[in-house]
Amino acid sequence: MGFIFERVIEKAWQIRQTEAGWSQKEGYQNLPLEQKIWLDNFYQAERETDDEWLPKIKEKISRWFLSVYLNRKIIQRPKPLGAEQIKPVKDILDQQVEDLMGGLL
């Protein structure tokens, strides 16, 4: 699971290489603010001074992971998972929060 989160963080790094302000252009109006803060360097000052966006990002990544696990059956015989499994997924993501907060600020 950690590898998957590493790939998400790696992709975030790649997106950050895009010109600052990209998320304000047409086509990105519906992108949630917390994702803009996390991914667009236009929001770098906000990203560095306000950490309210991070729990929302972790929640969305965790829910995305569980959705993929449940709906695409990426494991041959998956164990049933429910909403209560979101905490362990978040816990693993928390272990990598240094990458989210440190390297990606």
Outline the structure in words:
With 105 residues, the chain is mainly alpha-helical. The protein has one domain (2-103). 62% of the residues lie in helices and 0% in strands. The protein is built from 6 helices and no strands. It has helices at residues 2-16, 33-39, 44-49, 53-72, 86-95, 97-103. The radius of gyration is 15 Å and the shape is elongated. The two termini are 23 Å apart. The mean pLDDT is 79.
Instruction: Indicate the structural class.
Output: mainly alpha
Strand content: under 5%
Give me the count of strands: 0
Principal-axes geometry comes out as elongated
Total number of domains: 1
Task: Estimate the helix proportion, in percent.
Answer: 55-70%
Q: What is the H/E order? A: HHHHHH
What's the gyration radius in Å?
15 Å
* Poorly predicted spans: none
Average pLDDT number: 79
**How widely separated are the two ends?**
23 Å
The largest sheet, given as strand count, sense and whether it forms a barrel, is: none
Figure out the total of helices: 6
